[in-house]
Amino acid sequence: MAAGRSVESGIVTRHAPRVGAAKLTVHKHLPQPVVDLGWKAQVRLCGRYRRLAAAGKRNTVIVTAIARELAGFIWAVAREVRATA
């Protein structure tokens, strides 16, 4: 199930990074390093998606690569949360 969600998130990264109004209220309750990692992930993964697409890679390959890298960001957030707890 977790892998499926990473792939779904990989598909979304083709859109420009942004933080919606609903997420801004969530950000108020998160540690700043976690918010910063989330933004860094959005910017990096969107850029990677676009570079891979421009190189002519298949969409399934792109999304899988993005999902794999996203797992690394999730791991980093988990470490950050554990360190602050």
Protein model, in words:
Helix content is 79%, strand content 0%. It contains four helices and no strands. Helix 1 packs across helix 4 and helix 3 packs antiparallel against helix 4. The chain starts with a helix and ends with a helix.
**Count of DSSP helices?**
4
Q: Give the end-to-end Cα distance, rounded to a whole number of Å.
A: 26 Å
Radius of gyration: 14 Å
Helix content: over 70%
Attribute tags:
85 residues; mainly alpha
Itemize the secondary structure elements and their pairings.
Elements (H helix, E strand, L loop, with lengths): L1 H11 L8 H7 L4 H23 L4 H26 L1
Helix pairs in contact: 1-4, 3-4
Describe, in short, the structure shown.
This protein is mainly α and 85 residues long.
